[in-house]
């Protein structure tokens, strides 16, 4: 593959990653709004909807970190650096 094809493939993977993130965000918001509504109708004195909100929120935060590369990045950049490092050793 030439450089242009490699750049295209990386851009395509990045777009796919962003699309998956936004689908996840939409599902997170919609489902948690539904859970909130059910909670308020069925048992407004007990705020149980917060538990799935927080649990899923942790997973969602990890997904966001992996997509946007905050903190110690193990994303595509890390993979590229590691591949180059291993290729140089051989």
Quick structural overview:
The chain is mainly alpha-helical and 90 residues long. It has three helices and no strands.
Task: Summarize the structure in words.
Helix content is 81%, strand content 0%. The chain has 90 residues and is mainly α. The protein has one domain (3-89).
Features:
90 residues; mainly alpha; 3 helices
Indicate the structural class.
Answer: mainly alpha
Number of helices: 3
- Which series of helices and strands comes N to C? HHH
Biggest sheet character: none
The percent range for strand residues is under 5%
Envelope shape: elongated
Tell me, rounded to a whole number, the average pLDDT: 88
Number of strands: 0
Architecture blueprint of SSEs:
Elements: H1 3-42, H2 50-68, H3 76-89
């Amino acid at each position: 593959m030439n450089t242009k094809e490699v750049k295209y493939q990386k851009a395509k993977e990045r777009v796919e990653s962003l699309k998956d993130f936004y689908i996840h965000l939409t599902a997170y918001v919609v489902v948690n709004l539904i859970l909130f509504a059910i909670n308020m109708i069925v048992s407004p004195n007990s705020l149980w909807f917060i538990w799935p909100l927080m649990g899923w929120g942790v997973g969602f935060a990890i997904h966001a970190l992996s997509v946007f590369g905050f903190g110690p990045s193990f994303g595509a950049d890390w993979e590229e650096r590691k591949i180059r490092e291993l290729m140089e050793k051989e």
